[in-house]
Amino acid sequence: MPKTKNYPDISLLVTTYNWPQALELVLKSALCQTIPPDEIVIADDGSREETKTLIDTIRESTSIPIVHVWQEDKGFRAAKIRNKAIARCTKDYIVQIDGDCILERHFIQDHLSLLKENRFLCGRRVYLDPKATETTLSRKKLSLWAHPSSIDYRSYLNNIRSNTMRQLFAKYYGRGVLDYISGCNMSYWRKDILAINGYNEAYEGWGAEDDDVVVRLFNMGVEKCCIKGGAVQYHLEHTYNSQDRLQINRELLKKQLEKGTYRTEKGVSQYL
């Protein structure tokens, strides 16, 4: 599906932290898309110099603008760095991923296939096992079938790409406000994310910051649509962030659900 004037220009927002080996594969997969992004904005939550060096190298190999937005490492602050990156996005539509998820080449095309005004999209991911992750990183290319169990059985259906399945599931799948949310596979209109003032920076530490964004978009009347049968991405296995603030973040989310409002106070507007 070639890009035409019927589709908005795309900002690809990539969140990363101190894993340049994974980020290299993710960025290469972004540059090989059937519909490439018009710009890439990297939300860097405090990576060391190796990540900057990698980004500079890849920037030299492509005509697609790559913007590196960095903040000091003070723990997990995804909400804050995503706000800073959103403020630097210049295109009308934002596709949001993480720097540990390699994109199937139709990923952006599949997001665009369900694009509508007053709608945001949530996709899923395919989990690679540790051995497949190790092989993929060492070979510097996606090695799905290097091992029989390379794809976690719980996410096997997320590896299927089918237009019929995608269109059918878009009507019925994951319609509840908190169903099937993954901040590593989302897309939304820039005007909509600005209207809710982006991420709530009260969320620090891992957990629930993406749920909060979805709840507030939902409260504003933006339709939630889940992608199944497309927008395939492959998650590289790694150790997980501390969840020591998860209960605090869940309480914040509970209060947001009770309030029913859509605009957060401390959000992206401070960077515009």
Automatic annotation (TrEMBL):
Chain ranges of the Glycosyltransferase 2-like domain: 11-157
GO MF entries: transferase activity
The keyword Transferase is assigned to this record: yes
Organism in which the protein naturally occurs: Porphyromonas cangingivalis
Protein name: Glycosyl transferase family 2
Galactosyltransferase C-terminal domain: residues covered: 180-229
Pfam family membership, one: Glyco_transf_7C
Record InterPro entries: Galactosyl_T_C, Glyco_trans_2-like, Glycosyltransf_2, Nucleotide-diphossugar_trans
Domain of life: Bacteria
Keyword Calcium belongs to the record: no
Keywords: Transferase
